[in-house]
Design a protein that fits this description.
By secondary structure, the chain is α+β, with helices and mostly antiparallel strands. It has 4 helices and 7 strands; from the N terminus they run αβββαααββββ. The strands form 2 sheets. The chain has a 4-stranded antiparallel β-sheet with strand order 4-5-6-7, with helices on one face. The chain has a 3-stranded antiparallel β-sheet with strand order 1-2-3, with helices on one face.
């Protein structure tokens, strides 16, 4: 998925031709988003969405050498998911998956945002990687802002992708990023 004006790629993921057949443009976009999030959700749960093997997940500052370029190249940190049983791997943007956490999903829901149907590229840190705040690389500590209206929830993650803190910022408060 990319910007029609500047051709910048926001999210990229393999999408089979069958996902396009018989669907309107809007339905293709929705199917791409739902399928991509489903794959990422499986991978982050430690189950390969391709072979059901064991997936390891963690944070990385650099996309692997197997890709000469990647749409997350400009992100200060990204996820790396890698199956030990098959060739599945991916580098999802960190901001695209923090909404999977129940506390974040509940916070968004309370503000009228459904993270299940809001496209992952609608979250600020996916489109603007400068929104991510790397607090430490050794050990990893990252703060990811999630915005809903005028409010911000800063989600703190460690290297194991565990949520270590949630900072609620009222409307009008400085994000401090």
């Amino acid at each position: 998925m990319g910007c029609l004006d500047c051709e910048d790629i926001v999210v990229a993921f393999p999408f089979d031709p069958g996902g396009i057949q018989g669907r309107s443009d809007e339905a293709v976009v929705e199917a791409f988003d739902r399928r991509t999030r489903l794959f990422w959700r499986f991978a982050l749960a430690g189950v390969c969405p391709v072979c059901a093997g064991v997936v390891e997940a963690g944070l990385t500052a650099a996309v692997g050498p197997e890709l000469p370029t990647h749409y997350t190249d400009d992100h200060p940190v990204t996820l790396h998911v890698d199956c030990r049983g098959c060739s599945f791997y991916n580098y999802p943007p960190l901001a695209a998956v923090v909404g999977f956490h129940p506390a974040v999903a509940g916070w968004l829901h309370d503000r009228g945002v459904d993270p299940r149907t809001t496209p992952v590229w609608a979250f600020d840190g996916v489109r603007d990687p400068d929104q991510l705040d790397v607090l430490s690389e050794d050990p990893w500590a990252v703060a990811v802002p999630v915005r809903a209206g005028d409010e911000t929830l800063r989600v703190h993650l460690d290297g194991a992708l565990a949520v270590t803190a949630l900072e609620r910022r009222p409307a009008g408060a400085s994000d401090g990023l």
